[in-house]
Amino acid sequence: MIRVAAVPQTVSMTRFSLWLEQQEVVHEIRHEDGHQVLMIENEMLHQPVFKALEHYLDDPDNYAEGAGSSPGPPRRRRPSGQWQASPRQAPLTLGLILLAALVAWLTGFGMRDEMVAMLTFVNPFEYPTGSLDQRIEALTGTLASGQIWRLLTPDILHFSLMHLVFNAVMLWYLGSQIEVIDGRGHAIGVFLLSSLLANGSQFLISGPLFGGLSGVVYAVLGYAWISNQFRPRFQFPPALMTVAIVWLLIGFTPLTQVLLGANMANAAHLGGLIAGLIYGALVSSQLRQQ
Asked: If pLDDT is split at 50, 70 and 90, which confidence band does 149 have?
């Protein structure tokens, strides 16, 4: 059986399953990790069935069952022709974005130092971090004191509205697709792995004064891009990865200081991208073997 997609339990798959039966598509719906996983027998039908599922998820209550037609997309209701998850379908991604927005408001986009210091990788008021040895010692002391949350919380720190909005838009566009299509478990996996690698890399390079979801954004970019090389299933404009790589390279030049008046967290971006590529390749390879 070939995995097509994971659909939240809140979405009824009854009509879609009946439609697949009418098309004589051998399939089954498994329940895993709080999701319904659609599996089909014929790998050649993966793409048309996936397209049809996208259309079904647009409006399950008004899905046209189209008796006698071959597996392919029924008429779409949205004029844009592009499927995008609803907030109900991707609560994890939406929750992360809302949490980052709330923290940005509470910290005044980084203006309230004491509150920011509670969320940085280590507390900059408690530890010196001028050298690599000091950073390692600070990290060891922080973890020994039980402040494990600091490994992840730099993600939800943002220091400008533009930074927050850009990260939110990109994370929703790709992160919600990963959550709906590959399942919430894999979305959590890529979020956690990218956070640890991106935040850890940036801290060791520059110290604790950084933040943002950019590392996670680069991770979902890498995950979706590499996944589509194995088995296309995400909406991903080909030029998007090119733009992301160019911007990543620009970040290692003085141009960012000239254009933005600030340096970018380049190590976090690179670490997130690597994490996403690795995790996406592992997941896609596993799916191909099923």
From this structure: very high
Q: Point out the catalytic residue in the list 35, 46, 269, 284.
A: 269
CA dihedral (232, 233, 238, 239) in degrees, to 10, reads -150
Whole-model pTM: value is 0.73
Report how far residue 256's alpha carbon sits from residue 258's, in angstroms, rounded to the nearest whole number: 5
Strand ranges for 26-121 from DSSP E: 27-32, 35-40
Measured distance CA(175)–CA(173) in Å, rounded: 6
CATH of the domain at 124: 1.20.1540.10
Is 27 a catalytic site residue?
no
Cα distance between residue 143 and residue 240, in whole Å: 37
Place of tokens 């599996």: 39
Query: How many Å apart are CA 36 and CA 143, to the nearest integer?
Result: 38
Indicate if 117 and 248 belong to the same structural domain.
Answer: yes
Q: Other CB atoms closer than 10 Å to residue 59's CB: what's the count? A: 12
Instruction: Rank 1-5, 44-48, 159-163, 190-194 by mean pLDDT and report only the highest.
Output: 190-194
Q: Known catalytic residue: 269?
A: yes
Rg (CA), the chain: 21
Out of 214, 227, 284, 285, the active site residue is 214
**Helix, strand, coil distribution of the chain in percent, nearest 5:** 60, 5, 35
Q: How many domains does one find in the chain?
A: 2
